[in-house]
């Protein structure tokens, strides 16, 4: 659970910005989106396959830049 303590002279907008940053850094938004709808096993496999493909491509590009 993310908590933000609001200071005495702090504006609500700045506290809200800090809260949003903390929540997004903790990965709560992505987790909410992932669990928003039921995902069939086939959809889960496809999502993981796409993530693996992205990761491989990212590593390959990183190796090319370092050579």
Description:
The protein contains 3 helices and no strands. It has 2 domains: 1-36; 39-67. The longest helix has 26 residues, at 41-66. With 67 residues, the chain is mainly alpha-helical. Helices cover 72% and strands 0% of the residues.
Question: What would you say about this model in short?
Answer:
With 67 residues, the chain is mostly helical.
Radius of gyration: 19 Å
CA distance, first residue to last residue: 43 Å
The chain-level mean pLDDT equals 88
Rough shape?
Answer: flat
Helical residues, percent: over 70%
Strand content: under 5%
Structural class: mainly alpha
Q: Main sheet?
A: none
Number of separate strands? 0
The quaternary structure here is single chain
Task: Compute the number of structural domains.
Answer: 2
**What is the number of helical segments per DSSP (H or I, 4+ residues)?**
3
- Write down the secondary-structure element order: HHH
Enumerate the spans where pLDDT stays under 50 for 5 or more consecutive residues.
Answer: none
Describe the SSE topology.
Elements lengths: L11 H15 L1 H7 L6 H26 L1
Name its key features.
67 residues; 3 helices; flat
């Amino acid at each position: 659970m993310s908590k933000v303590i609001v200071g005495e002279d702090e504006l609500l907008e700045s506290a809200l910005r800090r809260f949003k940053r903390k929540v997004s850094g903790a990965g709560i938004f992505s987790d909410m989106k992932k669990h928003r709808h039921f995902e069939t096993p086939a959809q889960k496999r496809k999502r993981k396959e796409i993530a693996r493909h992205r990761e491989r491509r990212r590593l390959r590009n990183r190796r090319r830049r370092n050579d």
